[in-house]
């Protein structure tokens, strides 16, 4: 769909619809830096080039993807400004019919493929909560998807002099509260974390519990208190959505639970389709590389997939274990504490190279650093010594 590669890493000042009437994909805001060290954000066969910092600007990540694509001759296979309208099984159910819109020429094309990998990410369609009173609040309401900058030149949201409530204390919500606090009069971060973030916030940032309702001038909280705001920014996550998939594909999405999938990626009903990148709270680039190699081991015929019944039973057993741990449907693809188990399962099942231990170790100590020291964590510098060991340089 984009004019260049990079997907969510491409900064785009526009919000809403693009020039072709299609929803703007990017959620990138100006000045964004990675919240994981670059040492674990590259690919096993193509690490991010060495530079002074471990936490790097979004533009450097985009340059890395460009270098990767050029190195492996990928660019010549990409059709830019082509929007996928529909994917459905062919009549004989042995392949896939893909209808795409050639946007610059406004033409529909029908293409056929043997396999489909769905890699559209899950940071593009905002998930907005529903609170009583949302229609009566007189201030501005927006999702973090549309936040671009705290600078006055960005007309979408003029932060200077505003009083801002940020709802949601994940990595983006915390980062956004910090960025907005540099220009706003005051910022409140509403969250429902069991453990309060350990970090020290700027003096004009306060923490409050869940919002229960919006009022004409502000909000009421679960602790019975209330507060007035001129802007409410929802940093409440995104929906997993695949509007291009025909119902014939056999895939359903319910509260971000995508099913039926084998190992969170292969479509059990049509195992020539797979989804890359659904799990979250993971070491993303390394996991997606692992998932891609997992799928290709079966797609290439180098290894035979289990039967549909066996794949369904495997998935049912895993999901039952998840529900017993108290996870909700929206957490169906959450890894976090069990990410290593997932990586090892993929590698062992497909008999492919696993993620290196040093990557997993560094991810564990860096994944939650934003909640420990939001202001300074990006000053951390790391160096990989070997497949097992890393050192903190500063």
UniProtKB/TrEMBL annotation:
Its cofactor is FAD. It comes from the Eukaryota. One of its GO terms (molecular function) is NADP binding. InterPro entries: FAD/NAD-bd_sf, Flavin_mOase, Flavin_mOase-like, FMO-like. The keyword Ion transport does not apply. SUPFAM superfamilies: FAD/NAD(P)-binding domain. Belongs to the FMO family. Its EC number is 1.-.-.-. Keywords: FAD, Flavoprotein, Monooxygenase, NADP, Oxidoreductase. This is Flavin-containing monooxygenase. Pfam families: FMO-like (PF00743). It is an enzyme of class 1 (oxidoreductase).
